[in-house]
Write a structure and sequence with these properties.
By secondary structure, this protein is of the alpha/beta class. The chain contains ten helices and six strands. The structure holds ligand DN4.
Length: 305
Amino acid sequence: MAQRGFHPVSGERSGRCSRNARIGLCVGLSVAVIATVVAVLVWHQGRLQKPPPPQKWKGRGTTSNFSHIVLGRCYTYIQFLRPELRNRDCRKIEEAFRNAFLSKNPCQVTEQDYAPLIKLINQTVDCNKTVFWSRSKELVHQYTRLQKTLFTLEDTLLGYLADDLDWCGDAGSSEMNYDSCPLRREDCPASAVSVFWTLASRKFAEDACGMVHVMLNGSLSTPFNINSTFGSVEILNLQPKRVHTLQAWVTHNIGEISRDSCTSSSINDLRSIVNNMNITFVCQNNYRSINFLQCVKNPEHFLCG
Ligand code: DN4
């Protein structure tokens, strides 16, 4: 007969063995239960602690499908509009645009944040082909769409990508804020969008050469507004060593009394600023080519007969 407490074959003490096994099993089970409870608690806590909602601003939120639009515009531009840029990497360009403002307070985005995007695009406009504008967006783009050798900022890849879009991120999230973005005049003067346009406008002006043009709206009492981006950024960043003449086309809405806006006081202000920079100023009232374009839309008007 086997001795009590000894296994008949191995000779080990079977009583202590089963007690140790039970203790081990108990400890193991307890650890598993505690781990499960902790995991459930952490998971539950995580569900309760959603990321804080993005900051609320007064302007429209990021344009829906922002990334898709930018990518699509980029391919359209390099494939069809300006195939000379076909070696640009649209995926990298779209990514650099997004990274400039994502995960950041939209009132603290800097020009430096857009530097990688600008570097990737790297486009130059030939001398004599730069066209600025102020308060004449639709007409100037109708004109450059026909005169394909002329470029407004929105006819360059950088401006083309961003034209009419809104965008902003949020410091507490890696997502775009589709609900609201800062308004330039009410939330912060230097929003992600505003910094972009000021930078793009400055660079566009700095790079201009030869004779440059500007289309101004003569139907306004002040066709030249010193506070506009043209008046406060572009004019001041023309390089007199590169630009010899600024030609202004002052247009009037068809059917409105056509006055000689080139002698108006705001255009005289522009003339003084430009002349002080040692740049020649030339002004054309109701430039004929642009009149023809206006008449396409208003063929019945007696001035178009
Ligand atoms: P404008 O006709 O007074 O302004 C044209 C549009 O651009 C308006 O919707 C402006 O918004 C908006 N805008 C102008 N400056 C900024 C800025 N810094 N940040 C955000 N939006 C802006 O003419 P302008 O002389 O002020 O601007 C036109 C000139 O600047 C052109 O020669 C372009 O090269 C360049 N630019 C173009 C654009 C664009 O295509 C934007 C900015 C600058 P709001 O004033 O009605 O709020 O959108």
